[in-house]
Amino acid sequence: MELDHVVINTLRDMDAASTLFADLGFHLTPRGHHSLGSINHLMVTPLAYLELVGVPATGRQRQEVLDSPRGLNGLVFRTSDAPETYRHLDDAGLAPLEPMAFSRPVEIDGQSHEARFSTVRLPPTAFPGGRVYFCRHLTPELVWRDDWMSHPNGFEELTDIVIESRDPQATAAQFAAITGAAVRKLGDERRIDGQSFALRLRPGPVERFAELTLRFSQVDEIARRADQTPGANWRPLGPSEAELEVPSLDLTLICRAG
């Protein structure tokens, strides 16, 4: 199981969301405009990235984004072969949607390039807590660039996501089926470990992606910035860990040094 990225849905509030994350010290890539009718900014680390997604004020607007809830909403695994991933999921009876190709323009050093992707999505009924799909990057050099992976707040890695479910065992089994990874039982929680990223499934009243843990070189800088950023609530959990809440996005991030 290899994480590609995690999605935060901003719906029609991308301007406010991108300003807030920049104020918190994340280095956001320039705004991208997908051919499917969505816009985005990335916060890239060497292994994976955090993505803000929304829809433009005018023009084509992707209905899948508008139909999805605000906040943590997309969990995306990496694939090197979208058609093969589709066949694997289909053979497992998971009813994947056909592979979809799309692109977005990227400007680097004054030159225009086209970032291209191929995705295989699971139907919304498979994981009611959020969108789950696989992504193949056909032009990874247009995403993983050194200057985009340097964050003033020390952001370095996405480490785990908490998924709440009425039936954590059943939901964990679904994730195990699509990733091929094993499920561990830890009390009421179920855990699936992948390459540098873990899924933690715990009981909850509704199906949702509840919180995401991010690793930083240190948390002093993001703590300082959070205290000065309207709309960001910082609550220390220990000397090197804190909870960062963004109510406008219904978002909880656990920020941890190490």
From TrEMBL:
Pfam families reported in the protein's UniProt record: Glyoxalase_3
SUPFAM superfamilies xref list: Glyoxalase/Bleomycin resistance protein/Dihydroxybiphenyl dioxygenase
InterPro entries: Glyas_Bleomycin-R_OHBP_Dase, Glyoxalase-like_dom
Residues annotated as domain Glyoxalase-like: 3-178
Protein name per Swiss-Prot or TrEMBL: Glyoxalase-like domain-containing protein
UniProt organism field: Tranquillimonas rosea
